[in-house]
Structure formats: C-alpha cells, structure tokens
C-alpha cells in the first residue's frame, strides 16, 4: 500500500477521533453545567427553606412572648382586686402561656442544634433571649428539664464565647 494513502487514512482517522473527543467533551461540559446549576438551585432552595423555617419560628416566638406579657400584665392589674379564683385562673393562664413560649424557644433551639439554622446567626440574634429565659425561669431548667435543647444551645453559645478570647490571642501571637 502506498505510504501516502496510509498517511491520508491515518489523518482521516485522527480527525474523526479528534471530532469524536471534542463532541464527548462538549457533552460532558453540558452535563457539568447542568449539575452545577442544579446544585446552585438546591442550595438556594435550602437557604429559602431555612429562612422560611426561621420566619415561622420567630413569628410563633413573638406571638407567645406577647401572650406571656399580656397574661403577666393581666395578673398585675388584678392583683389587688378580684377574688382568689380569678387570680388562680389568671395564674394558670400565665403558666400555660409561659410554657407555650418556652416550647417555641425549644423548637428554635432544636432546629439550631440540628444545624438546620446557622449557629452564628442564632448566637447573634438569640443569645440574650436564651440567657434571659434561663435567668427568668430557673425552675424550668433544672435536672430532668423538658427544655434540654435550650440548655444545650446555651452551652454551645457559651462555648463559642469561650473560644473567642483564645482565637484573639492566637491572632495576636502571629
């Protein structure tokens, strides 16, 4: 066989292989682009779901806090006047609303502890609220408490606060 014919056949096969390789690479690039878009969309959906969850929980916490304040105000207004049964009823109302408020905070703490909500954001937004609740209602957070997630989240907040000075000292040493 003529060497020129062999060279032409080799050239045609090489060109065909090059075109086939280019076509496969282009197809793979499209698949990667689609996968990246899907990952971005999934991440966006996750962020939206987390934001929606937080908004729902915050709304419930706010409603419950307002109900506790209203019950507390009702008790203080009628403290001097009214019979014992009325005071007892208002006291039970206050306790039930306080329990509802703590349940809503427990849900927020549970979602944060499960990493469904960002710990840094929750630390910034709710650290003072959690501390205040722990100080305000110490009888609710003793041994065998039903609000373990709040206690656990507070411990995580405290650990984060303890880590800040050591991080600052490392930066200063460098």
Features:
single chain, 174 residues, mainly alpha, 86% helix, 0% strand
Word description of this protein:
With 174 residues, this protein is mainly α. It has helices at residues 3-77, 84-113, 119-136, 148-173. Helices cover 86% and strands 0% of the residues. Helix 1 packs antiparallel against helix 2 (84-113), helix 2 (84-113) packs antiparallel against helix 3 and helix 2 packs across helix 4 (148-173). The mean pLDDT is 85.
Q: What's the helix count?
A: 4
Number of folding domains? 1
What separation lies between the terminal Cα atoms? 74 Å
The radius of gyration over CA amounts to 31 Å
- Number-wise, the strands total 0
Q: In percent terms, what proportion of residues is strand?
A: under 5%
Low-confidence stretches: none
Query: Structural class per helix/strand content?
Result: mainly alpha
| Largest sheet entry | none
Question: H/E element string?
Answer: HHHH
Q: Give the overall shape.
A: rod-shaped
Helix content: over 70%
């Amino acid at each position: 066989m003529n060497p020129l014919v062999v060279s032409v056949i080799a050239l045609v096969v090489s060109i065909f292989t090059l075109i086939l390789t280019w076509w496969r690479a282009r197809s793979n690039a499209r698949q990667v682009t689609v996968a990246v878009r899907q990952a971005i969309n999934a991440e966006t959906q996750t962020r939206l779901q987390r934001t929606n969850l937080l908004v729902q929980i915050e709304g419930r916490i706010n409603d419950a806090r307002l109900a506790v304040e209203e019950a507390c105000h009702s008790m203080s207004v009628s403290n001097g006047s009214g019979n014992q049964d009325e005071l007892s009823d208002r006291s039970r109302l206050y306790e039930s609303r306080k329990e509802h408020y703590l349940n809503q905070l427990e849900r927020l703490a549970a979602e944060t502890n499960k990493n469904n909500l960002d710990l840094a954001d929750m630390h910034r937004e709710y650290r003072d609220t959690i501390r205040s609740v722990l100080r305000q209602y110490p009888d609710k957070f003793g041994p065998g408490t039903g609000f373990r997630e709040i206690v656990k989240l507070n411990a995580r907040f405290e650990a984060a606060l303890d880590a800040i000075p050591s991080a600052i000292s490392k930066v200063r040493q460098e």
